[in-house]
UniProtKB/TrEMBL annotation:
Entry membrane topology: Multi-pass membrane protein
InterPro entries the UniProt entry points to: ABC3_permease_C, Macrolide_Exporter_MacB
Subcellular location: Cell membrane
Species this chain originates from: Kribbella antibiotica
Annotated Gene Ontology cellular component terms: plasma membrane
Membrane-spanning segments: 240-267, 287-308, 340-363, 384-405, 411-434, 467-487, 684-710, 738-761, 773-794
Name listed for the protein in its UniProt record: ABC transporter permease
Amino acid sequence: MFRLALTTLRHRTAAFLAIFVAVLLGSALLAAAGGLLETGLRLNAPPQRLAAAPVIVSGDPAYHPPNGSGSAALPERHRVDADLAQKLASTPGVTKVIADRSFPAVVTPGAGAEVLAGHGWASAALTPYALTAGRAPQTGQVVLDARLAGGSKPGDQVTVTVRGEPQQYTVAGIAVAQRTVDVPAVFFADSEAERLSPAPDALGVWPAVTGLELPAGVQAYTGDERGVAEYRGIATSLPLIIMSGVFGGMVAVVMALVVSATIGLSVRQRRRELALLRASGATPRQVAKMVIAETMVVGILGLVLGLLCGRVAGDWIFGLLTGGGIVPAQLRYDQGPLPFAGAALLTFIVLRVTVGIAAGRAAQIRPIQALAEAAVPAVALGRVRTLIGLGFAAVTVSIAVSTLFMSPTNAAAIGGPAGLTGSIAVAILAPLVIQRALIPRLTALVEKRGTSGVLAVINLRVRAVQFAAILIPITIATTIALGNIYAQTTQQKAAIEAATGDLAADVVITSTTGGIPAGLTKSVRSQPGVTAVSELVRSKGWIEEPYDKSHTSDAWPLLGLSGPVYEGKVTKGSLADLKDSTIALPPGTAKKLKVDVGSELGVRLGDNALVKVTVVALVEGPSGYEPLLLPAALLASHTTTGLPSLLLVKTEGTVDLAKWPGTTAGGRDVLSAGYDAGLGVDAYIAYLLAGIAVAYTAIASVNTIAVAVLDRRREFGLQRLTGATRKQVSRMLTLESLVIAALGLVIGLIAAAFTVLPIAVASRGWPIPSGPVWILLAWVGVVLLLVLPTTAITGRIAMRTKPMDALSSPVG
């Protein structure tokens, strides 16, 4: 049977090529997903500026809720206590401890980027940097990285914007890093760096001493793990683990559905052959073994080549993630043997199970029944298959209904799988879906196209099982594409509207030098026509005393204000009292925590500091997006830059910023643009996953269409012998393809609605998604461009053979 299986491969090139491509792509993408998972677990980021120190001590960059439920990356840099350096220096075996302090410092004119470029000169040894000219800096002096120096030399005057304030400094020296460092540095006198940033970001320890006694929340890193202390954003493996899990799961499900449909179509097309084998004495077991053997040969070849392409696919996807700012560019992509082993095992299981199901059903049928079924394929589905399909449909409805009553964050996390389970239900019940969709109005519309239309309707009815293989990838791709995109655009618009709708401002001022300094706020407030000014600080945090169980790893949005620009309804207290150590809460949260105006709370801020604040007001916010309001000065002191990010101005005129380099005045759209950048991470991930999955299913749909059309050579030959022209047969194929494409689009859109509409209700309060209509129209165009040209080309190839030769052909 194995030799017979190898012989069959030569005559079924199109069908087996489709299986080969589907398995190749699936295994390559699964290996890439496994690489993302390993990268997330290892979090290796070779250090640059801190590479000379064998041990780096810094604050834990992840927040761990008191209830022990998960973890989340801290939104701000978690600094360490200044006294820790002296304590570590007295530890037996430690010969040297150097504190690294970072603060916004931009040479003007210079790089003009928001980077923490200012450091104390002592921290130059952590890289190390070496002087090429001049000497160490004293108060009022700086040492410049050679890349920032330009034509400057020791003794020249330069303008350095430090913490948003432009100041004059004397160049004391020029230094060059002894290894590759992406971010150039500006070094200040150690006393000035300590004044600008009292708490160190990290401590470099020599030599590599083990067993250091560290306070809670502080960790020691060695080797490539030192990059966690150097680069922000490498805090927890959770985002990459979640992303790799979602991506890998989506690819596995899509591959299973597509491979199953392709194998099922291939086996179904050969019922005549299988019937003859059975009639000539072959047992069901032998027939099944032959089908399994030939499919597994092709599948394993695709699997091997896919694994070879897995590294390329992984590097490409990881490059997209780093290029889009999803993960730090310094994070190293790790893809050892385990991702390839896991991809190989999962792909093999999917392939073996799907071909086993298809081969078992084909081999168990009786010979006479198989010969009859070869002419008019049965559309009836087994009871088990029908129940499974209905079960997935019920799960889809349950997820969608439950999503309606969730918060926007939970709705986005839980509602996403509804589209995928809906696609699985359609894939299982696809033949019945096609027959039930062929209602009289639709068939009458197609039949009006003449004889070609009548034949197309007949073929759609009797070949519902074959056309189901084409319907499945179109439905899956439509569901994933439209579901992911419109879910993201809906969430994004709702979040932006919630974050900016209650903020009143005519002019919004931004800065590229690290933030808004106090001097700029004072200057703008004194300008003619200005009626109100408020600094704006955005961060995230958690209420721990009393403990708020509604926000564990998911943080509260924190909003820091210093002026009367918030327009949310105050139900108790006054926002005028929002000064010093105070906070304003949503009324619902206050009721749940059993606190009121005058109560004291313990809030964990973005740098992991626990601060005590007094409730001075209860303020309503957008449902599901309510922020906690804090004084801007308090919140800014616990951010990475230590400065407000924006300045909101109510004015009837313009604002003069001539004395403030790096600042820009814009309209209210700046608020949306700034917040949109924060939401872009989730959207980028969703679009990336959708794009890859859609590309995979698109290729699969092209393969499936080609296999299905090429298999109908005998049918086309018989039609031409009975008087039909090539044009009439081509028109029949076009009508069939249009109907299947339309069904795939409509059903996919319905499946996507089970994800998008509940998320719209949870996010915006009504079942109307947000997003441009051109995305839907563009996707319709993509599907038609996939289906119609493929059908036309393969139809032309199928009719290239003379009718009599086609009837005597051993294939199709």
